[in-house]
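Translate structure to sequence.
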């Protein structure tokens, strides 16, 4: 991997990434000690990844090459990296928009109160029963548009899709 360091802030960022990777390894080691407990008791993606890693190694599968410790740390750090700022910034936008449009905030609150009440947390099953809240979230995402250009993507080989050709950029 090439790392080009040009400014102090980039240097700091790269140190943070290395520090985060050290933390992920510590977390992973802790979980690994408990691998016996996760069998039949998958609680999250880290449990699933550790179990898949163990299974591929036990079976002597070629897939074990794609589930090394480095891959697991990479996957977990992708989720934290991609999921932290996006969620924080979207929540900031939500608060700002709800403060500006209090009539809409009231309707969302009433719907949540009617459907969920105060005695439990919301779950995915509630999603279809909260159309106004969901439409509001969609509108916040559309309006805030925090990643307007998305992420750069590339094909790993030349691909023909109808009349479109995507030339690979990797050699
Ligand atoms: C409101 C919160 C979020 C927003 C607005 C958001 C937005 C986005 C956008 C626009 C992309 C690029 C899609 C593309 O160009 O193909 C993306 C990709 C991604 N997001 Fe999120 N995201 C959010 C939360 C999260 C969370 C919580 C996670 C993980 C726990 C996550 C993990 C990822 C990953 C792994 C990718 C890359 C997918 C790929 O490689 O194709 N995101 N996200």
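Result:
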């Amino acid at each position: 991997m090439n790392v080009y360091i040009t400014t102090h802030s980039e240097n700091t960022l790269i140190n943070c990434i290395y520090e985060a990777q050290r933390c992920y390894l510590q977390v992973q080691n802790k979980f690994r000690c408990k691998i016996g407990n996760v069998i039949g008791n998958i609680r999250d993606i880290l449990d699933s990844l550790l179990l898949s890693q163990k299974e591929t190694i036990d079976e002597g599968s070629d897939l074990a090459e794609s589930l090394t410790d480095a891959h697991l740390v990479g996957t977990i750090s992708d989720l934290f990296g991609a999921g932290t700022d996006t969620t924080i910034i979207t929540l900031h936008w939500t608060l700002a928009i709800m403060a500006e449009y209090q009539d809409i905030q009231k309707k969302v609150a009433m719907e949540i109160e009617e459907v969920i009440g105060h005695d439990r947390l919301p779950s995915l099953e509630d999603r279809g029963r909260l159309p106004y809240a969901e439409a509001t979230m969609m509108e916040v995402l559309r309006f805030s548009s925090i990643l307007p250009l998305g992420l750069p993507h590339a094909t790993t080989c030349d691909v023909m899709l109808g009349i479109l050709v995507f030339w690979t950029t990797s050699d």
